[in-house]
Amino acid sequence: MWRFHVAWTYRPSIAADSLNSHANPMKAALAAGRVQIGTWINLARNPAILTLLKSAGLDYARVDMEHASPSIETVADMAVLGRALAFPIIVRPPAGNREWITRLLDVGVQGLHIPQVDTPEIAREVVNASRYAPEGLRGMSGIGPHTDFGPPDFAALNAAVHLTVMFESAEAFRHIDGILATPGIDAVTLGPSDLAQELGVMGTPRQARVIDEHRDRLIDSARRHGKQVAMLVQTLEEAERWIVAGVQIIAYASDVAILHRGFAAASARLKPGG
Asked: pTM for this structure?
């Protein structure tokens, strides 16, 4: 009887090494001066939506946990697939506290979109929870999705995190320079509906003008402090306008808006009398 004995040693391939780089392709693209175009995911739960969006030419997806219903398990699945596709997800948690930030980063999310950052103190707490020492005091964990199941490189993990803070109140704008001067904050945006509601212009003829004035203030302050600006838009014309104004991160509509718009147009055209 013939017997074969094969001795072998596992050697990680180049591809395996690259999986453990912790890199965030969105941060690299922004550093190279490339505007990033994405959309909100409010409805879809199948992680394959990321493959679809990438094939359509988008750069990232923003997943909403504050005003939508995805579970942490769904977000974890999307985060792992996004890392494999080099198509990052940015997640808005229900709150910008240590508990949510820790869980989301540890399941592999690299981008956070933090609501209700009204003061420099809140901004510092967000940074502290998001980055390891010496840049913060992020909770320590073992190997996992956040390390691509390889040994952690804490400096690289810190560099990969992208933090966007949301201005949604008059108080935030009173502290605009203090918040944007906070080390570790990468980008800033505003919540147009919440801000309009607080300023008392929601649903009035003044709403668009007042919100645009606050957008301009945000862009000016971000430019002074070397921060990026993210902006939610509903039309391509809006997107083009704000890119010219200096916005580097565009969130164009959402899965809900695109589906509703498309099917409403088809329904109106195809139904009798439509």
From this structure: 0.91
